[in-house]
Specification:
Largest sheet: 16 strands, mixed
Bound molecules: zinc ion
Distance between the termini: 88 Å
Mean pLDDT: 95
CATH topology of the largest domain: TIM Barrel
Order of helices and strands: HEHEHEEHEHEEHEHEHEEHEEEEEEEEE
Helix content: 10-25%
Oligomer: single chain
CATH superfamily of the largest domain: Metal-dependent hydrolases
């Protein structure tokens, strides 16, 4: 009888197609950053390799690992001129995009067609994304390759300008060829961050020459081999402030320079975007506090983003001592101490606490300036 029940259960499992094995959890870890200025804040990586050039990963995996890491869009950018696996995988410049897009479509991840034009410096390595077709870029002259990309409506950016493989000292140099590209409208953006490297000089060029700031992984191996993703370490990404998560809307935002770069604990970008990100992330829970004599009060400040904001105080106040270097931890509410300087202070006073957010870089040298308004009621103790 018992045996029959067991067999019946097995038959049922078979009919219903239920697996008795433990489910493998395929989960996405969202990156929390606020939407700003009426735009969606999209998390993107526009520089990714697969086995179709010198990467070690099949294109389907690129789409799911990006989805798992909370990304919204990726570009597949295999090298045009460098295919070390071609004895095993024949040259097909379009194929890695086509395969990755199939997986991306099932995950609502936008996959963008790109190629890396891979030449010696100058002009170095240059990505063209939003291509219509890749093979015409396979042509002897790099000027022809970039002209063809531009004729297809591509967004073109200079990769890793300070890469030690081409600049032994790791310093980026601007060559006459880059001026030529800029003047012909054949370069629209530049990697301020590539992989683990931030190039301050490139950050400066992006501001001076009005180029779109990009931060990309240039990943070749599985992302989890290069980054401790299990413990929250992330690849560099480009934040794109776009009207929608579509290739057209992302391209429009890139052309309009509406980006920032998230790289380790740094957020790099124009002040017009970093300021609203800070303001939309931070909430002062109790801006009104009472200080008794030389006692302390605490202002609670919540940060709903995933970025720790590292603050350094820039003003000295006569009536109070305030936390000089608070860190507004991502996803936490932290205490900002306000301590009275004298037992005799009385009345109500408003303060604009001025801080520099040192890890929100609006120039290579300058952090974002912010103000935290508080109102203190002083109760004298003698
Ligand atoms: Zn490269
Ligand atoms: Zn690359």
């Amino acid at each position: 009888m018992r045996k029959q029940t067991a067999i019946g259960a097995l038959v049922l499992v078979g009919i219903m197609g239920i697996s008795l094995r433990a489910e493998v959890i395929r989960a996405r870890s969202p990156i929390h950053l606020p939407d700003i200025l009426g735009y969606q804040t999209l998390k993107c990586d526009f520089h990714i390799h697969t086995v179709f050039s010198d990467g070690g990963v099949w294109p389907t995996i690129r789409a799911e690992e990006a989805w798992r890491e909370g990304l919204d869009a990726i570009a597949i950018t295999d090298h045009i001129e460098y295919q070390p696996h071609k004895d095993d995988i024949p040259t097909n410049h379009s194929r890695s995009f086509e395969i990755a897009k199939g997986t991306g479509d099932t995950l609502a991840l936008t996959v963008i067609r790109g190629s890396e034009v891979t030449r010696k410096m100058p002009p170095g390595h240059i990505n063209a994304i939003f291509l219509k077709t890749n093979p015409p870029l396979d042509t002897p002259e790099w000027r022809d390759a970039l002209r063809i990309a531009a004729e297809q409506g591509a967004f073109i950016f200079w990769n890793h300008p300070g890469w030690t493989g081409q600049q032994a000292d790791g310093l980026a140099r601007w060559y006459p060829e880059h001026t030529e590209l800029l003047e012909k409208g054949l370069i629209h953006g530049i990697e301020v961050v590539n992989d683990r490297d931030y190039y301050p000089e490139v950050h400066r060029w992006a501001l001076e020459k009005n180029l779109t700031m990009m931060g990309n992984s240039d990943v070749h191996d599985p992302v989890s081999m290069g980054f401790d993703t299990d413990h929250g370490e992330r690849r560099a990404i480009t934040l794109v402030f776009a009207t929608a998560n579509t290739p057209e809307a992302i391209k429009e935002a890139l052309v309009a320079h509406r980006t920032a770069v998230l790289h380790k604990d740094l957020l790099i970008g124009r002040q017009e975007y970093l300021e609203p990100i800070f303001k939309a992330s931070v909430k002062i829970m109790n801006p009104l506090v009472t200080v008794k004599g030389k006692g302390s009060a605490y202002v609670q400040i919540a940060n709903t983003s995933d970025v720790d904001f590292q603050l350094v105080g820039t003003n000295r106040l006569d009536e109070v001592i305030v936390s000089a270097r608070p860190i507004l931890r991502g996803g936490k509410t932290v205490l900002l101490m306000i301590q009275g300087r004298s037992p005799e202070t009385t009345g109500k006073k408003s303060f604009d606490l001025k801080y520099t957010v040192t890890n929100l870089k609006v120039t290579p040298e300058d952090g974002l300036q912010v103000t935290i308004p508080v109102e203190v009621t002083f109760v004298p103790t003698k």
